[in-house]
Design a protein that fits this description.
By secondary structure, the protein is mostly beta strands. It has one helix at residues 32-38, and strands spanning 5-9, 16-20, 25-29, 43-49, 53-57, 62-66, 71-76, 82-87, 93-97, 112-113, 131-132, 138-139. It is globular.
Length: 145
Amino acid sequence: MPDDCVPGACFCRAVRFAITLPTLFCGHCHCTMCRRSHGAGYVTWLAVPRDRFALTEGANDLVRFESSDHGTRSFCGRCGSTLFCESTRHPDQVDIVLANMDAAIDRAPQVHVFFDDRADWVSVDDGLPRLGGATGMEPSKPEGD
């Protein structure tokens, strides 16, 4: 496998995929859909152009769920691992859960999005930019304002 190719998989490894670097972004999402679908305080996503993503095994095990009028989330039908998010708002990219990568990618998380929607029990003190507002991508008000 070339140095710029990074493999990934679901928990049971039935669904496998690979990406070719560079990635487009890496960030933590605090939106309600991400929190509920992952059972976590927030989820760390990366994105790659669609032509840099390859599903290498398990196409028949991949289940797609229409999570909004513009988005689809994919998960493994065997183990339930959430894997991908695709949107008609950015049809040329695939969002991938960072935790499902088998090796390091080309960047660390860079931002928190939908920060205003975060769970009240989540404490964040990493110094990364915080975006929120109506779109989830606007500068977030500092805590206490």
